[in-house]
Amino acid sequence: MVSPASATGMAPYAQVKHYLKGRLAAGDWPPGVLMPSEAELVARFGVSRMTVNRALRELQSEGLIDRVQGVGTFAAQLHKVSSTLTLRDLHDEIAERGHRHEARVIAQEEVAATDGLAGQLGLPPGAPVFHTLIVHLENGVPLQCEDRYVNPASAPDYLAQDFTRTTPTHYLFEATALWRAQYAIEASRPTREEARLLGIATSEPCLIIVRRTFSVDSAITIARLVHPGTRYGIEGQFTP
User: Cβ–Cβ contacts within 10 Å for residue 40, how many?
Assistant: First the structure.
């Protein structure tokens, strides 16, 4: 049985990829769930194992599936980004260093979306949005000022959470069907409020990340993450 994608003139491997990607987008295979085997896909599409393997390799390179030799193919944790950057919970980063994470919640409220914010979240101007302003500390030292706005339709219980016990990032990983993310990273100075909350001078360079995440059909959140340049860095690795 061949997917309807065959009518579009797609190459055989692209038909398989299109089918699997569509099912993943629809949430038919939640993260960690075993997906159809290569043999099942060969039978379904009437193609070679090599064709199926190419489709799976491309989905794996995009971070959408995990393949375990001798076990099978699994839907990936969709907070993974297909670049070398990964969405990470700051609490986990700090814990991995053997240090203590603490969060100070400065604001946790419902506000009306400004025109610019409404456009970023795909909402009409003036629509209600959820807002949190949190300072994250590592061993008592401010490490990040997190200014976040959340689409209420994506996470209706967001404001009910205790963000001194869990982070917004961790909660949104668990509560939403994260599909993709956008980053903008720059070195700049903090605002006066950010400098005050971080306990630094307004002239101190900071690493600023603006991150927007999406489900399949709508924006979930936009966050401005400000880190003192002397206290934070981004690390990664690349293997050709």
Answer: 11
Strands (E), 126-218: 128-138, 141-150, 180-188, 206-214
Q: In the chain, what are the domain boundaries? A: 4-75, 90-228
pLDDT digits (tens, 9 = 90+) for 93-111: 888 888 999 999 999 999 9
- Residue 97 to residue 139: CA distance in whole angstroms: 11
**Collapsed DSSP state (helix, strand, coil) of residue 195:** helix
pLDDT tens-digit readout, 3-34: 444 445 678 999 999 899 888 877 788 778 89
Residue 5, classed as helix, strand or coil, is helix
d(CA 189, CA 200): 10
Yes or no: domain 90-228 corresponds to CATH 3.90.79.10: no
| Among the listed residues 16, 80, 3, the one whose alpha carbon sits nearest the alpha carbon of residue 54 | 16
Q: Which two tokens stand for residue 219?
A: 């924006």
- The top-level CATH class assigned to 4-75 is mainly alpha
